[in-house]
Design a protein that fits this description.
Strand content: 15-25%
Bound molecules: pyridoxal-5'-phosphate, lysine
Number of domains: 2
Number of helices: 13
Shape: globular
Radius of gyration: 23 Å
CATH superfamily of the largest domain: Alanine racemase
CATH class of the largest domain: Alpha Beta
Helix content: 25-40%
CATH topology of the largest domain: TIM Barrel
CATH architecture of the largest domain: Alpha-Beta Barrel
Length: 425
C-alpha cells in the first residue's frame, strides 16, 4: 500500500492494501491512517512540551472543520487533543468523540444565540469572540443563564496569508476577527461586564501558509497587544495562535517543520507567561488521508487529449474546483509502460469537475485504482450529494485492521430525508 505520510519526508505505512479496502467498501472512498494522525499529533505535542517555559500547558485543539469524522476525532481525543469548533454541530461531534468541554474552543463569525447558549451548557473552555456585536449578544445570552464564560477576542492583525486568495482570513477586508485597533477597547468592555471573563486574545490569519513570516507577524501583534492591555491593568493569560501551517501537497521539502513553527511561537511569546493554544487542522489530518477512486474509462480523443474519467467527482473532493488545489495522484498498482499525460476528471456535469490537467502518470486502464494524496483535510467534510451521488464511505486503518467509520447511505436512506409534501398524495 502507498505510504500516506509525507510530512518531514518520513514515511508511515499502514499494512492494509488499498486494493483490499476498495474491494470491500467500493469506490470512491476516503481512507484515513491512525499511525499518521498519531504521529502528527505526537510531533506537535513534543514540540509544544519542549517549550513549556514559554507556551505554558498549551492546548492543541484540532480544527474539526478539517475532518469531522467521529473516529478521526476520537483517535485524536484519545491522545489528549482538544477541538476548535465553529458550530453547535462541531461542538456536539467533539463531545461525542470524547473531547471534554474543557478542551473545546468555540470560534466563528456567525454564532447564533442558540449556539452560544449551547456552548455555555457544554461548558466549553473558551469562546473566541469575533466582533463587538457578537460580544453584546454573548453578554445577553450569558446574563440570562447567570454565566460568565471565559472568552478570547479574535484579533484581525491585517496580515492575510495562505495557499490561495480564497483561504486567507486575516486580511483587512476579511470578515474574521476584530480590527486590531478596535480590539483593546473591546477587551476592556468585556472586562467591565460581569457576564463574560476575558482571558486572552486569538488570531488565525489563513490556511496552507508555507512560510513562518506572516504567522510570526501575527503572533508579534498579539504579544504587543497583550503588553498594552496589561499596561492598562487588564489581565491576559491565554493566547490562541490559531492554525494555518501548510503541508507539502507538491512534495515540497522546504516547508517549515512543526518544530520550527512551534519554536518560533515560543520565541515570540517568551517571557509573557501566557498559556498558548494552537488550532491545527490541515497539518494533523491532510496527509493522514487519501481518496481512493477507480478509473471508469480512458477517453483518448482524436485531438490528442486523454481524459482519465474517474468515479470520484468534485462533489467528493472539492478542493481542486474551489481553489485550483493540487493533489498528488498515484496509481495504486503501477503498470509497466510509458508515462502518459492525462486530464483527470470526474463524472459531474460541471466544467470545473477537473482534478488535474496533463498530469503525468503511468499507463492506466478502466478499473484501475488511483489515490488522491493529502485528502485527509477539507476532503470528505466539503463533499456534497450533487448529481444525486451518495456521500462516499470513510475507512479508518490501524496497522493491519480497518473499519468503516462512515457508511455510504443507500438510495432509500437518501430519499428518506425528503418526505413527500403531504399535498402531493
Ligand atoms: C479559527 C480557525 N482555526 C483553525 C483553522 C484551521 O486551519 P488549518 O487547517 O489551516 O490549520 C481554521 C481554518 O482555517 C480556522 O478558521
Ligand atoms: N477549505 C480550505 C481551507 C479553509 C480553512 C477554513 N478557514 C481548503 O481546503 O484548503
Amino acid at each position: 500500500m502507498h505510504h500516506f505520510d509525507r510530512i518531514d519526508g518520513a514515511l508511515h505505512a499502514e499494512t492494509v492494501p488499498l486494493e483490499t479496502l476498495a474491494g470491500a467498501v467500493g469506490t470512491p472512498a476516503y481512507v484515513y491512517s491512525t499511525a499518521t494522525l498519531t504521529r502528527h499529533y505526537g510531533l506537535f505535542r513534543e514540540a509544544v512540551d519542549t517549550h513549556r517555559g514559554s507556551l505554558g500547558d498549551a492546548l492543541i485543539a484540532f480544527a474539526v472543520k478539517a475532518n469531522s469524522n467521529l473516529s478521526v476525532l476520537a483517535t485524536l481525543a484519545r491522545l489528549g487533543c482538544g477541538a476548535d469548533t465553529v458550530s453547535e454541530g462541531e461542538i456536539r461531534r467533539a463531545l461525542k468523540a470524547g473531547v471534554s468541554g474543557q478542551r473545546i474552543v468555540f470560534s466563528g463569525v456567525g454564532k447564533t444565540d442558540a449556539e452560544l447558549a449551547f456552548a455555555l451548557e457544554a461548558r466549553v473552555r473558551q469562546i473566541n469572540v469575533e466582533s463587538a456585536v457578537e460580544l453584546d449578544r454573548l453578554i445577553a445570552v450569558a446574563a440570562a443563564k447567570g454565566a460568565a464564560p471565559e472568552i478570547a477576542i479574535r484579533v484581525n492583525p491585517k496580515i492575510g496569508a495562505g495557499g490561495h486568495a480564497r483561504i486567507t482570513t486575516g486580511g483587512a477586508t476579511d470578515k474574521f476577527g476584530v480590527p486590531a485597533e478596535e480590539a483593546p477597547a473591546l477587551y476592556a468592555r468585556a472586562a467591565a461586564s460581569p457576564h463574560v471573563t476575558p482571558v486572552g486574545l486569538a488570531c488565525h490569519i489563513g490556511s496552507q501558509i508555507t512560510t513562518l513570516e506572516p504567522l510570526e507577524g501575527a503572533f508579534r501583534a498579539l504579544r504587543e497587544m497583550t503588553l498594552a492591555l496589561r499596561a492598562g491593568g487588564l489581565a491576559v493569560s491565554r493566547l490562541d495562535l490559531g492554525g494555518g501551517l501548510g503541508v507539502p501537497y507538491h512534495g515540497q521539502t522546504d516547508l517549515p517543520s512543526i518544530a520550527d513553527y512551534v519554536g518560533m511561537a515560543a520565541r515570540v511569546l517568551d517571557g509573557l507567561e501566557v498559556e498558548a493554544a494552537f488550532e491545527p487542522g490541515r497539518l494533523l489530518a491532510a496527509n493522514a488521508g487519501v481518496l481512493l477512486s477507480r478509473v471508469i474509462q480512458v477517453n483518448a480523443r482524436s485531438d490528442g487529449r486523454t481524459f482519465l474519467v474517474l468515479d470520484a467527482g468534485m462533489n467528493d473532493l472539492m478542493r481542486p474546483a474551489l481553489y485550483d488545489a493540487f493533489h498528488d495522484v498515484v496509481a495504486v498498482r503501477e503498470r509497466p509502460g510509458e508515462v502518459g499525460a492525462y486530464d483527470l476528471v470526474g463524472p459531474i456535469c460541471e466544467s470545473t469537475d477537473v482534478f488535474a490537467r496533463e498530469r503525468r502518470l503511468p499507463p492506466l486502464e478502466a478499473g484501475d485504482l488511483v489515490a488522491f494524496m493529502g485528502a485527509g483535510a477539507y476532503g470528505a467534510v466539503l463533499a456534497s450529494e450533487y448529481n444525486s451521488r451518495p456521500l462516499v464511505p470513510e475507512v479508518l486503518v490501524d496497522g493491519d485492521r480497518w473499519a468503516v467509520v462512515r457508511s455510504r447511505p443507500s438510495y432509500d436512506e437518501m430519499w428518506s430525508r425528503e418526505p413527500k409534501a403531504d399535498w402531493l398524495g
